[in-house]
Design a protein that fits this description.
Layout (H helix, E strand, L loop, with lengths): L1 E5 L4 H17 L4 E7 L4 H7 L3 E5 L11 H23 L3 E4 L5 H10 L3 E6 L6 H6 L5 E4 L13 E3 L4 H7 L15 E6 L6 H8 L10 E6 L2 H7 L8 E4 L5 H5 L4 E4 L3 H10 L3 E3 L9 H10 L5 E2 L7 H13 L1 H14 L4 H14 L6
Parallel strand pairs: 1-2, 1-4, 2-3, 4-5, 5-6, 6-7, 8-9, 8-11, 9-10, 11-12, 12-13
Length: 364
Protein backbone atom coordinates (compact mmCIF):
# COMPACT_ATOMS: atom_id res chain seq x y z
CA UNK A 1 0.00 0.00 0.00
CA UNK A 2 1.34 3.44 -0.97
CA UNK A 3 -0.12 6.13 1.27
CA UNK A 4 0.12 9.89 1.65
CA UNK A 5 -0.82 11.10 5.13
CA UNK A 6 -1.36 14.69 6.23
CA UNK A 7 -2.22 16.18 9.62
CA UNK A 8 -0.85 19.12 11.49
CA UNK A 9 -0.78 21.80 14.10
CA UNK A 10 -1.62 19.90 17.26
CA UNK A 11 -1.12 16.47 18.78
CA UNK A 12 -4.88 15.98 18.55
CA UNK A 13 -4.48 15.66 14.78
CA UNK A 14 -0.93 14.30 14.51
CA UNK A 15 -1.16 11.37 16.95
CA UNK A 16 -4.25 9.87 15.28
CA UNK A 17 -2.37 10.14 11.97
CA UNK A 18 0.60 8.28 13.49
CA UNK A 19 -1.76 5.62 14.86
CA UNK A 20 -3.17 5.07 11.35
CA UNK A 21 0.37 4.82 9.93
CA UNK A 22 1.33 2.29 12.62
CA UNK A 23 -1.70 0.13 11.79
CA UNK A 24 -0.95 0.21 8.05
CA UNK A 25 2.66 -0.84 8.74
CA UNK A 26 1.47 -3.57 11.10
CA UNK A 27 -0.91 -5.00 8.50
CA UNK A 28 1.29 -4.38 5.46
CA UNK A 29 4.96 -3.99 6.49
CA UNK A 30 6.09 -3.23 2.94
CA UNK A 31 3.82 -0.19 2.69
CA UNK A 32 5.40 3.12 1.66
CA UNK A 33 4.29 6.20 3.57
CA UNK A 34 4.78 9.87 2.70
CA UNK A 35 3.74 12.51 5.23
CA UNK A 36 2.93 16.04 4.09
CA UNK A 37 2.98 18.62 6.89
CA UNK A 38 3.70 22.27 7.58
CA UNK A 39 7.11 23.90 7.64
CA UNK A 40 6.63 25.46 11.09
CA UNK A 41 4.44 23.31 13.37
CA UNK A 42 5.17 20.37 15.65
CA UNK A 43 4.82 17.70 12.95
CA UNK A 44 7.90 18.99 11.11
CA UNK A 45 10.14 17.64 13.91
CA UNK A 46 8.01 14.80 15.27
CA UNK A 47 7.35 12.92 12.02
CA UNK A 48 10.93 12.80 10.61
CA UNK A 49 12.13 11.68 14.07
CA UNK A 50 9.91 8.61 13.65
CA UNK A 51 11.69 7.75 10.40
CA UNK A 52 8.71 8.67 8.22
CA UNK A 53 9.36 10.28 4.82
CA UNK A 54 8.34 13.94 5.18
CA UNK A 55 7.56 16.74 2.75
CA UNK A 56 6.74 20.23 3.97
CA UNK A 57 4.48 22.92 2.58
CA UNK A 58 3.99 26.52 3.66
CA UNK A 59 0.40 27.08 4.68
CA UNK A 60 -1.46 29.07 7.37
CA UNK A 61 -4.89 28.89 8.94
CA UNK A 62 -7.64 31.25 7.77
CA UNK A 63 -8.25 34.14 10.18
CA UNK A 64 -11.84 34.18 11.40
CA UNK A 65 -12.09 37.99 11.36
CA UNK A 66 -11.86 40.22 8.31
CA UNK A 67 -8.16 41.04 7.86
CA UNK A 68 -5.65 41.63 5.06
CA UNK A 69 -3.66 38.68 6.42
CA UNK A 70 -6.19 36.38 4.75
CA UNK A 71 -4.83 37.45 1.34
CA UNK A 72 -1.48 35.97 2.39
CA UNK A 73 -3.27 32.82 3.64
CA UNK A 74 -5.05 32.48 0.29
CA UNK A 75 -1.81 32.95 -1.68
CA UNK A 76 -0.07 30.29 0.45
CA UNK A 77 -3.02 27.94 -0.04
CA UNK A 78 -2.91 28.27 -3.84
CA UNK A 79 0.87 27.77 -3.89
CA UNK A 80 0.53 24.77 -1.56
CA UNK A 81 -2.09 23.17 -3.82
CA UNK A 82 0.27 23.43 -6.75
CA UNK A 83 3.16 21.93 -4.75
CA UNK A 84 0.96 19.13 -3.41
CA UNK A 85 -0.11 18.16 -6.90
CA UNK A 86 3.55 17.76 -7.87
CA UNK A 87 4.40 15.76 -4.72
CA UNK A 88 1.38 13.45 -5.01
CA UNK A 89 1.79 12.92 -8.74
CA UNK A 90 5.43 11.92 -8.22
CA UNK A 91 4.71 9.60 -5.24
CA UNK A 92 1.63 8.08 -6.91
CA UNK A 93 -0.23 6.86 -3.77
CA UNK A 94 -3.08 4.36 -3.61
CA UNK A 95 -4.88 6.55 -1.07
CA UNK A 96 -4.44 9.97 0.56
CA UNK A 97 -5.41 10.54 4.22
CA UNK A 98 -6.15 13.80 6.02
CA UNK A 99 -6.35 13.60 9.82
CA UNK A 100 -7.12 17.23 10.56
CA UNK A 101 -5.56 20.68 10.62
CA UNK A 102 -5.44 23.33 7.90
CA UNK A 103 -2.45 21.65 6.23
CA UNK A 104 -4.77 18.89 4.99
CA UNK A 105 -6.84 21.23 2.80
CA UNK A 106 -4.38 21.62 -0.13
CA UNK A 107 -3.29 17.97 0.20
CA UNK A 108 -6.76 16.42 -0.09
CA UNK A 109 -7.82 18.95 -2.74
CA UNK A 110 -4.77 18.11 -4.89
CA UNK A 111 -5.28 14.37 -4.42
CA UNK A 112 -8.89 14.55 -5.53
CA UNK A 113 -8.00 16.63 -8.59
CA UNK A 114 -5.47 13.93 -9.51
CA UNK A 115 -8.14 11.24 -9.21
CA UNK A 116 -6.71 9.66 -6.05
CA UNK A 117 -8.81 7.97 -3.35
CA UNK A 118 -9.21 10.29 -0.37
CA UNK A 119 -10.08 9.72 3.29
CA UNK A 120 -10.41 12.31 6.08
CA UNK A 121 -10.88 11.79 9.81
CA UNK A 122 -12.71 14.06 12.27
CA UNK A 123 -11.69 13.54 15.90
CA UNK A 124 -13.94 16.12 17.58
CA UNK A 125 -17.68 16.39 18.12
CA UNK A 126 -17.56 19.74 16.30
CA UNK A 127 -16.42 19.52 12.69
CA UNK A 128 -13.26 21.53 12.01
CA UNK A 129 -13.11 24.21 9.31
CA UNK A 130 -10.75 22.18 7.11
CA UNK A 131 -12.92 19.07 7.24
CA UNK A 132 -16.03 21.11 6.44
CA UNK A 133 -14.27 22.39 3.33
CA UNK A 134 -12.90 18.95 2.42
CA UNK A 135 -16.20 17.06 2.71
CA UNK A 136 -16.86 17.33 -1.02
CA UNK A 137 -13.30 16.22 -1.87
CA UNK A 138 -13.28 13.16 0.42
CA UNK A 139 -14.40 9.73 -0.75
CA UNK A 140 -14.81 8.49 2.82
CA UNK A 141 -14.97 10.28 6.18
CA UNK A 142 -14.18 8.63 9.52
CA UNK A 143 -15.61 10.10 12.73
CA UNK A 144 -14.83 9.43 16.38
CA UNK A 145 -18.37 9.68 17.75
CA UNK A 146 -21.83 8.76 16.48
CA UNK A 147 -23.12 12.28 17.15
CA UNK A 148 -20.79 13.70 14.48
CA UNK A 149 -22.13 11.46 11.70
CA UNK A 150 -25.09 13.74 11.02
CA UNK A 151 -22.78 16.51 9.77
CA UNK A 152 -21.52 14.47 6.81
CA UNK A 153 -23.17 12.78 3.79
CA UNK A 154 -24.55 9.35 4.73
CA UNK A 155 -22.86 7.63 1.80
CA UNK A 156 -19.43 8.90 2.91
CA UNK A 157 -19.36 8.83 6.71
CA UNK A 158 -18.12 5.85 8.73
CA UNK A 159 -18.06 5.52 12.54
CA UNK A 160 -14.45 4.54 13.22
CA UNK A 161 -13.64 5.97 16.64
CA UNK A 162 -10.31 7.67 17.28
CA UNK A 163 -7.29 5.51 16.28
CA UNK A 164 -5.32 6.64 19.35
CA UNK A 165 -7.52 4.29 21.38
CA UNK A 166 -5.84 1.11 20.09
CA UNK A 167 -2.39 2.30 21.16
CA UNK A 168 -3.73 3.07 24.63
CA UNK A 169 -5.16 -0.43 24.96
CA UNK A 170 -1.83 -2.03 24.05
CA UNK A 171 0.12 -0.19 26.75
CA UNK A 172 1.05 -2.11 29.88
CA UNK A 173 -0.68 -1.06 33.11
CA UNK A 174 1.61 1.10 35.23
CA UNK A 175 3.04 -0.12 38.51
CA UNK A 176 1.80 2.50 40.97
CA UNK A 177 4.84 1.99 43.18
CA UNK A 178 7.03 3.33 40.34
CA UNK A 179 5.28 6.66 40.90
CA UNK A 180 5.59 6.37 44.71
CA UNK A 181 1.87 5.70 44.94
CA UNK A 182 0.16 3.23 47.24
CA UNK A 183 -1.13 -0.02 45.75
CA UNK A 184 -4.07 0.00 48.17
CA UNK A 185 -5.45 3.53 47.79
CA UNK A 186 -7.63 4.92 45.03
CA UNK A 187 -5.90 7.26 42.59
CA UNK A 188 -7.18 10.59 41.28
CA UNK A 189 -5.17 11.75 38.26
CA UNK A 190 -5.29 15.48 37.46
CA UNK A 191 -3.79 16.43 34.10
CA UNK A 192 -4.39 19.30 31.67
CA UNK A 193 -2.19 18.29 28.73
CA UNK A 194 1.55 18.24 28.00
CA UNK A 195 1.98 21.96 28.61
CA UNK A 196 -0.65 22.18 31.31
CA UNK A 197 -2.99 25.12 31.83
CA UNK A 198 -1.70 28.03 33.90
CA UNK A 199 -5.24 29.13 34.79
CA UNK A 200 -6.29 25.68 36.01
CA UNK A 201 -2.91 24.94 37.64
CA UNK A 202 -3.02 28.20 39.59
CA UNK A 203 -6.45 27.31 40.94
CA UNK A 204 -5.55 23.72 41.84
CA UNK A 205 -2.22 24.55 43.51
CA UNK A 206 -4.07 27.07 45.69
CA UNK A 207 -6.01 24.24 47.36
CA UNK A 208 -3.78 21.13 47.11
CA UNK A 209 -3.46 21.21 50.90
CA UNK A 210 -7.21 20.52 51.15
CA UNK A 211 -6.60 16.94 49.95
CA UNK A 212 -4.85 16.22 53.28
CA UNK A 213 -6.49 13.33 55.12
CA UNK A 214 -8.46 12.04 52.13
CA UNK A 215 -8.60 8.26 51.73
CA UNK A 216 -7.33 8.51 48.15
CA UNK A 217 -4.13 9.78 46.51
CA UNK A 218 -3.80 12.60 43.99
CA UNK A 219 -1.29 12.68 41.14
CA UNK A 220 -1.14 16.27 39.86
CA UNK A 221 0.49 16.49 36.41
CA UNK A 222 1.37 20.15 35.96
CA UNK A 223 2.75 20.12 32.42
CA UNK A 224 6.40 20.84 31.64
CA UNK A 225 6.10 24.63 31.51
CA UNK A 226 4.52 24.96 34.97
CA UNK A 227 6.48 22.40 36.97
CA UNK A 228 9.41 24.68 37.92
CA UNK A 229 6.97 26.95 39.73
CA UNK A 230 5.59 24.22 42.01
CA UNK A 231 8.22 21.46 42.22
CA UNK A 232 9.37 22.55 45.68
CA UNK A 233 5.87 23.22 46.97
CA UNK A 234 4.98 21.55 50.27
CA UNK A 235 1.99 19.25 49.77
CA UNK A 236 0.20 16.55 51.83
CA UNK A 237 1.66 13.02 51.81
CA UNK A 238 -1.18 11.74 49.61
CA UNK A 239 -0.45 14.33 46.86
CA UNK A 240 2.27 13.81 44.24
CA UNK A 241 3.38 16.42 41.68
CA UNK A 242 5.03 15.58 38.35
CA UNK A 243 5.69 17.61 35.17
CA UNK A 244 4.39 15.09 32.62
CA UNK A 245 3.86 11.36 32.10
CA UNK A 246 4.80 10.32 28.58
CA UNK A 247 2.91 7.03 28.60
CA UNK A 248 -0.20 8.48 30.17
CA UNK A 249 -2.55 5.59 29.21
CA UNK A 250 -0.40 3.18 31.24
CA UNK A 251 -1.10 5.22 34.40
CA UNK A 252 -4.71 5.77 33.36
CA UNK A 253 -5.14 1.99 33.59
CA UNK A 254 -4.31 2.28 37.30
CA UNK A 255 -6.47 5.40 37.81
CA UNK A 256 -9.84 5.43 39.57
CA UNK A 257 -10.88 8.98 38.60
CA UNK A 258 -9.39 11.47 36.16
CA UNK A 259 -9.70 15.27 36.08
CA UNK A 260 -8.75 16.49 32.63
CA UNK A 261 -9.36 18.61 29.56
CA UNK A 262 -11.69 17.22 26.90
CA UNK A 263 -9.46 16.88 23.86
CA UNK A 264 -10.46 14.23 21.33
CA UNK A 265 -7.46 11.93 21.89
CA UNK A 266 -7.84 12.05 25.67
CA UNK A 267 -11.54 11.20 25.37
CA UNK A 268 -10.78 8.26 23.06
CA UNK A 269 -8.38 6.85 25.68
CA UNK A 270 -10.84 7.43 28.52
CA UNK A 271 -13.55 5.59 26.57
CA UNK A 272 -11.59 2.45 25.75
CA UNK A 273 -9.86 2.26 29.14
CA UNK A 274 -13.12 2.94 31.01
CA UNK A 275 -11.75 5.68 33.29
CA UNK A 276 -14.50 7.73 35.01
CA UNK A 277 -13.60 11.38 34.51
CA UNK A 278 -14.43 14.95 35.44
CA UNK A 279 -13.90 17.13 32.39
CA UNK A 280 -12.69 20.72 32.70
CA UNK A 281 -12.99 21.76 29.02
CA UNK A 282 -10.71 24.47 27.71
CA UNK A 283 -12.83 27.53 26.92
CA UNK A 284 -10.08 28.89 24.64
CA UNK A 285 -10.38 26.41 21.75
CA UNK A 286 -12.09 26.91 18.39
CA UNK A 287 -15.88 26.66 18.46
CA UNK A 288 -15.75 25.63 22.13
CA UNK A 289 -15.30 22.07 20.81
CA UNK A 290 -13.92 20.66 24.07
CA UNK A 291 -17.14 21.54 25.87
CA UNK A 292 -19.13 19.76 23.17
CA UNK A 293 -16.74 16.78 23.26
CA UNK A 294 -17.31 16.52 27.02
CA UNK A 295 -21.09 16.91 26.78
CA UNK A 296 -21.21 14.01 24.32
CA UNK A 297 -20.21 11.76 27.25
CA UNK A 298 -21.99 13.68 30.01
CA UNK A 299 -25.33 13.37 28.18
CA UNK A 300 -24.85 9.60 28.12
CA UNK A 301 -23.98 9.43 31.83
CA UNK A 302 -20.42 8.44 30.97
CA UNK A 303 -18.60 11.42 32.53
CA UNK A 304 -18.96 14.55 34.66
CA UNK A 305 -18.20 18.16 33.75
CA UNK A 306 -16.92 21.14 35.72
CA UNK A 307 -16.47 24.28 33.67
CA UNK A 308 -13.29 26.26 34.24
CA UNK A 309 -15.22 29.28 35.48
CA UNK A 310 -16.74 27.09 38.24
CA UNK A 311 -13.49 25.39 39.22
CA UNK A 312 -12.74 25.97 42.90
CA UNK A 313 -11.87 23.94 46.00
CA UNK A 314 -15.44 23.21 47.05
CA UNK A 315 -16.71 22.20 43.61
CA UNK A 316 -13.80 20.02 42.52
CA UNK A 317 -13.12 18.21 45.79
CA UNK A 318 -16.85 17.82 46.34
CA UNK A 319 -17.26 16.17 42.92
CA UNK A 320 -14.26 13.90 43.48
CA UNK A 321 -15.50 12.79 46.91
CA UNK A 322 -19.08 12.23 45.74
CA UNK A 323 -18.02 10.27 42.64
CA UNK A 324 -15.68 7.94 44.54
CA UNK A 325 -18.16 7.37 47.39
CA UNK A 326 -21.23 6.71 45.21
CA UNK A 327 -20.35 3.16 44.15
CA UNK A 328 -23.59 2.58 42.24
CA UNK A 329 -23.26 5.71 40.09
CA UNK A 330 -19.52 5.07 39.60
CA UNK A 331 -20.28 1.57 38.30
CA UNK A 332 -22.88 2.98 35.88
CA UNK A 333 -20.36 5.45 34.45
CA UNK A 334 -17.79 2.67 33.92
CA UNK A 335 -20.43 0.48 32.26
CA UNK A 336 -21.49 3.30 29.93
CA UNK A 337 -17.88 4.06 28.99
CA UNK A 338 -17.34 0.41 28.13
CA UNK A 339 -20.39 0.39 25.86
CA UNK A 340 -19.37 3.62 24.09
CA UNK A 341 -15.68 2.86 23.61
CA UNK A 342 -14.46 1.69 20.19
CA UNK A 343 -11.49 -0.59 20.76
CA UNK A 344 -10.59 -1.38 17.14
CA UNK A 345 -10.59 2.12 15.64
CA UNK A 346 -7.30 1.89 13.73
CA UNK A 347 -8.36 -1.52 12.41
CA UNK A 348 -11.68 -0.07 11.20
CA UNK A 349 -9.86 2.71 9.39
CA UNK A 350 -7.42 0.26 7.80
CA UNK A 351 -10.33 -1.84 6.53
CA UNK A 352 -11.99 1.25 5.02
CA UNK A 353 -8.74 2.25 3.30
CA UNK A 354 -8.22 -1.27 2.01
CA UNK A 355 -11.80 -1.37 0.76
CA UNK A 356 -11.38 1.96 -1.04
CA UNK A 357 -8.27 0.70 -2.81
CA UNK A 358 -9.90 -2.58 -3.74
CA UNK A 359 -13.17 -0.78 -4.55
CA UNK A 360 -14.90 -3.56 -2.63
CA UNK A 361 -18.38 -2.41 -1.60
CA UNK A 362 -18.64 -4.91 1.24
CA UNK A 363 -16.59 -2.58 3.41
CA UNK A 364 -19.31 0.08 3.22
Amino acid sequence: MRVVVSAGGTGGHIYPAIAIIDKIKEEEPKSEILYIGTSDRMEKDLIPALGINYKEIKVSGLKRKITLENFKVLYQFLAARHKCKKIIKEFDPDVVIGAGGYVTSPVIWAAKKLGKKTFIHEQNSVVGLSNKYLTKYADKIGVSSASTMEYFPKDKVVLTGNPCSEKALKMKKANKEDYKLSKNKKLVLIVMGSLGSKTVNDKITSFLSAFKGKDYEVMFVTGNSYYEKVKNMKVPENVKITPFIYEMPSLMKATDLMVTRAGASTISEILVLGVPSIFVPSPYVTNNHQYKNAMDLVNQNAALILEEKDLNKENLIGMIDDTLKNKEEYAKIKKNLKELGIKDSAERIYEVLKGMIMDDKKFF
